[in-house]
């Protein structure tokens, strides 16, 4: 049925589209087609402006042009390689940026690059002020493609490629694990758990069913590569009265698993987009944008306690179970065992039964063979429409624009959940051969045949904007533009009581003289229901000044500068983005957490306690910013430069303070507090971004080199804190600071432990444990000895950069993209690196401390306890995340027109590419490793694009 539906939709679009050609029009609105000129139009807040008139803090990527040499599958893929100021997850290091697709808040991953014309990055406060509170940390505007005043044009693109894993975790085999686990027990003063005979049997590999040695990453369970294939068709055209654009795309991607139900895992996506522009009459234009997306994802079921395959791979020790046991090992005379096996509904391949134990009555292998399958389904429908009124009949230069949008998204899961039996064999040796004599069965095979439906979610977005624009030139030299805006949207997510809301009114006034001197004032009045009555509105103003220096007379004969401009801006933005919840201004009282009180003999009552005080003066968080942008073009556009410097201060971040209220506002028993949330903490970011491009023709070869990046520092300029020692204060240090103990290696002897400060983190400290510095000299190591260790780069490393290179020769185009980040640190603090207790042993433990290896050991002694002394934040576990990635290489060949001029095709291009090819880093092994999720992959692709 689903295939019939897809074919019907595709057929309907092909039938309807030609008729729409006579009923569509261009709309001079915020989704107009970009004109490829020397001064292209760029989408900014609510309007398009010439790139030369932008006053700074804005970067743009012509994605339609970029896709001709760099095909990718995610809208924001490696954009830090082209855009200065974008770290990959934040703009100017602030995080939580707003994404608008055709002016509506939407997810960036639900619009594919083949559908996109242009992406604009609004970094400065001045650039985003008109969008109100939700854009206070920057905005990314994605503009989809529009129709053109051309005859019918059809573009078809097809790609297929393979993901190849970069690396897999390296866990120890059964014999090594058992040996080292014994060592850990002895270290803890316990006896060995595994005998030498057991370890020998597991090491010999003579019978992996009796003595299992499970490798989750072997070819028995994983594919060496898996496929992704996609195809998309674009249909566009129109005339003066109507234009249309349609995009129909489908992709299907498998995954790395290769056994049981999981061998058929896949994700697929069908999308249908239609954008229509209409000229209704001489003064009214209209547009309609629609998009429908159908996602499906199929996977094998897994039991709740095991999670998915990758989480099981990081926890299930190799000697626990044999996933499958051959029937041939069962004693032919053991009729009772054969009766149990013959009653099983899950004999795999006709020759294996599912292994298990009393402890492991379910496991991920048996799950994928026998527990059934699940399918996740998502349907998204997006619709927006708008009208543009030319009001020059009222006054010249006046226009009114309005947009209304409704998006719906639903998702749910369907599954067939089966129960299954596992069997624990009882082994013995007969004449030198291993034989199963006796089987214990756990659970039963049950298939209800019923389809279960769950995990249902529903999301809705409603958005509206209406705004007047005024654009007029007086006496040839005085250019005035203005906007008066009212806009808002609400996003409703199922299971959440409050909607995500944004409401604001905006005013923009711009003036330039001879396109030489610029001034712009923008402001928005915002509203937030997260704040108390009386504080729910605020004004966010911004002022920008620009000077196009290259237009001055003294620059007229310059042989160096083609263009040179300088822009300055200052802004104060109010936002509720950092106010996490509603009602944080209200006092909170609870009885559930109250203490028991005996008011009289024989009876007790639970007290009502205050958990938080109220604050009717709680206010917006403010982003105060000053920025400057320099843009230049030199030597006839041989070199172009766009760089911005910024200082911004985020002030009034919410906290429940512990030092600015008297201590009697809080009690430990009963646990009660009258301390309210207050605006107190302040953060500062200072930095600069840059885009530098060099364009040069050498003979018949066109060369382009682009370098982009951002460098910034962070500082906690105000904190509520009262520490005993100066080195403990966070104020004055990085916002994204990593704090922990300073280590001095490993204890080498019992005497050294005795003669060192006492380390009070639990357990007995022994030789082989990490030794820490006593920062305050009190002869005790505790949390008071934690110090600042370095920046974590949580919103981007201090330095993020990208390099892109293009070389064109005749029909060939070579493109390469590299990205890098430098100056940040991270901790080796996951279960792969921190091995203690009953955790699975990875290869890192091979460098453990022992009496024999203490001179070279780089890892603490092994322990079956919680290792609270060793496995805690300290520089012992820190590493630099500095890296440079060869993110993309693509070679494209455009067939000569002489070969296709008498065919159906207007153009044909073929290409091959590789993504995520190489990581250059001292810590490459860590940076490329995933131990509890699917492996990182390289992707090799071949594609074709044809225009009819």
Observed structural traits:
11 helices, 22-stranded antiparallel beta barrel, 5-stranded mixed β-sheet, mainly beta, Ferric Hydroxamate Uptake Protein, Chain A, domain 1, TonB-dep_OMP_SusC/RagA, single chain, 948 residues
Q: What's the CATH H-level superfamily name of the domain at 41-154?
A: TonB-dependent receptor, plug domain
> Helical segment tally?
11
The fraction of residues in strands falls at over 45%
Query: Sheet with the most strands?
Result: 22 strands, antiparallel, barrel
Question: What are the low-pLDDT stretches, counting only 5+ consecutive residues below 50?
Answer: 1-37
Assign an overall shape: globular
Distance between the termini: 31 Å
Query: Quick one: how many beta strands?
Result: 47
Tell me the radius of gyration.
33 Å
- CATH class of the domain at 41-154, named Mainly Beta
Going by helix content, strand content and strand pairing, the class is mainly beta
Question: What proportion of the residues is helical, as a percent range?
Answer: under 10%
CATH fold-level name of the domain at 41-154: Ferric Hydroxamate Uptake Protein, Chain A, domain 1
The overall average pLDDT, rounded, is 91
- Assign the CATH architecture of the domain at 41-154: Beta Complex
Signal peptide: 1-23
Protein name: SusC/RagA family TonB-linked outer membrane protein
Keywords: Signal
Organism: Draconibacterium halophilum
């Amino acid at each position: 049925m689903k295939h019939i539906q897809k074919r019907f939709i595709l057929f309907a679009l092909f039938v309807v589209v030609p008729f729409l050609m006579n009923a569509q029009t261009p709309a001079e609105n915020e989704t107009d087609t970009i004109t490829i000129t020397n001064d292209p139009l760029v989408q900014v807040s609510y309007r398009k402006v010439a790139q030369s008139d932008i006053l700074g803090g804005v970067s743009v990527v012509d994605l339609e042009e970029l896709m001709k040499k760099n095909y990718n599958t995610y809208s924001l893929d490696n954009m830090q390689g082209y855009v200065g100021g974008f770290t990959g997850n934040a703009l100017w290091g602030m995080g939580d940026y707003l994404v608008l697709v055709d002016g509506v808040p939407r997810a960036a991953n639900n619009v594919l690059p083949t559908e996109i014309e242009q992406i604009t990055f609004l970094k400065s406060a001045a650039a985003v002020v008109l969008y109100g509170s939700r854009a206070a940390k920057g905005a990314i505007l994605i503009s989809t493609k529009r129709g053109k005043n051309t005859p019918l044009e059809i573009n078809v693109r097809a790609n297929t490629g393979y993901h190849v894993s970069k690396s897999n975790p390296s866990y120890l085999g059964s014999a090594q694990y058992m040996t080292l686990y014994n060592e850990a027990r002895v270290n803890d003063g316990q006896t060995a758990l595994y005998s030498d005979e057991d370890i020998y049997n597991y090491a010999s590999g003579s019978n992996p069913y009796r003595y299992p040695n499970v490798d989750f990453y072997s070819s028995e369970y994983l594919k060496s590569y898996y496929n992704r294939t996609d195809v998309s068709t674009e249909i566009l055209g129109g005339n003066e009265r109507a234009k249309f654009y349609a995009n129909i795309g489908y992709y299907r991607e498998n995954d790395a698993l290769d056994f049981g139900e999981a061998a058929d895992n896949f994700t697929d996506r069908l999308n249908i987009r239609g954008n229509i522009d209409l000229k209704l009459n001489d003064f009214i234009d209209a547009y309609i944008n629609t998009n429908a997306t159908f996602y499906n994802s199929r996977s094998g079921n897994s039991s709740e306690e095991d999670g998915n395959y990758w989480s099981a791979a990081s926890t299930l020790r190799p000697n626990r179970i044999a996933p499958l046991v051959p029937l041939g090992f069962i004693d032919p005379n053991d009729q009772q065992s054969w009766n149990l096996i013959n009653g099983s509904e899950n004999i795999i391949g006709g020759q294996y039964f599912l292994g298990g134990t009393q402890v492991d009555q379910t496991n991920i292998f048996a799950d994928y063979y026998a527990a059934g399958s699940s399918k996740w389904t998502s349907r998204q429908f997006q619709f927006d429409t708008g009208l543009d009124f030319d009001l020059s009949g009222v006054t010249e230069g006046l226009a009114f624009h309005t947009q209304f949008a409704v998006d719906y998204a639903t998702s749910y899961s369907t599954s067939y959940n089966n129960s299954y039996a596992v069997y624990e064999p009882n082994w013995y040796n007969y004449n030198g051969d291993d034989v199963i004599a006796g089987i214990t069965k756990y659970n039963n095979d049950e298939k209800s045949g019923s389809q279960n439906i769950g995990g249902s979610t529903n999301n809705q977005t409603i958005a509206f904007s209406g705004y007047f624009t005024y654009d007029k030139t007086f006496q040839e030299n005085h250019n005035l533009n203005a906007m008066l805006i009212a806009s808002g949207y609400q996003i409703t997510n199922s299971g959440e009581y409050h909607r995500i809301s944004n409401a604001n009114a905006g005013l923009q006034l711009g003036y330039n003289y001879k396109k030489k001197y610029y001034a712009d004032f923008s402001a928005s009045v915002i509203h937030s229901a997260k704040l108390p009555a009386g504080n729910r509105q605020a004004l966010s103003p911004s002022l920008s000044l620009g000077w196009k220096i290259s237009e001055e007379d003294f620059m007229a004969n310059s042989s160096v500068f083609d263009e040179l401009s300088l822009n300055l801006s200052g802004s104060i933005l109010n936002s509720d983005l950092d106010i996490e919840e509603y009602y944080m201004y209200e006092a909170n009282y609870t009885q559930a957490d109250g203490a028991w009180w005996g008011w009289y003999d024989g009876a007790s009552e639970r007290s009502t306690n205050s958990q938080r005080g109220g604050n009717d003066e709680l206010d917006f968080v403010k982003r105060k910013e000053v920025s400057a942008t320099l843009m230049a073009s030199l030597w006839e556009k041989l070199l172009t430069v766009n760089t911005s410097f910024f200082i911004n201060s985020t002030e009034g971040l919410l906290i429940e303070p512990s030092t600015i209220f008297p201590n009697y506002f809080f009690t430990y028993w009963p646990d009660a507090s009258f301390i309210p949330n207050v605006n107190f903490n302040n953060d500062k970011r200072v930095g600069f971004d840059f885009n530098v491009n060099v364009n040069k023709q050498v003979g018949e070869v066109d060369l382009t080199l682009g370098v982009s990046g951002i460098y910034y520092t962070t500082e906690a300029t105000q904190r509520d804190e009262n520490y005993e020692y100066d080195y403990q204060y966070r104020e004055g240090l990085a916002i994204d600071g990593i704090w922990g103990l300073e280590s001095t290696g490993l204890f080498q002897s019992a005497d050294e432990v005795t003669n060192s400060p006492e380390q009070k983190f639990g357990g007995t400290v022994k030789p082989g444990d990490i030794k820490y510095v006593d920062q305050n000299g009190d002869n005790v190591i505790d949390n008071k000895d934690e110090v600042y260790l370095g920046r974590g780069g949580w919103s981007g490393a201090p330095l993020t950069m990208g390099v892109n290179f293009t070389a064109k020769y005749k029909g060939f185009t070579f493109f390469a993209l590299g990205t890098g980040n430098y100056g940040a640190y991270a901790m080796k603090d996951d279960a792969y690196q921190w091995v203690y207790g009953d955790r699975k042993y990875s290869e890192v433990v091979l460098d453990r401390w022992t009496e024999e290896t203490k001179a070279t050991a780089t890892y603490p002694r092994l322990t079956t306890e919680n290792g609270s002394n060793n496995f805690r934040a300290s520089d012992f576990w820190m590493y630099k995340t500095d890296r440079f990635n060869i993110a993309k290489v693509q070679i494209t060949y455009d067939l000569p027109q002489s070969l296709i001029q008498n065919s159906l095709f207007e153009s044909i291009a073929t290409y091959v590419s590789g993504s995520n090819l190489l990581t250059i880093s001292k810590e490459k092994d860590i940076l490329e490793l995933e131990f509890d999720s699917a492996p990182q992959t390289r992707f090799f692709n071949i594609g074709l694009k044809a225009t009819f």
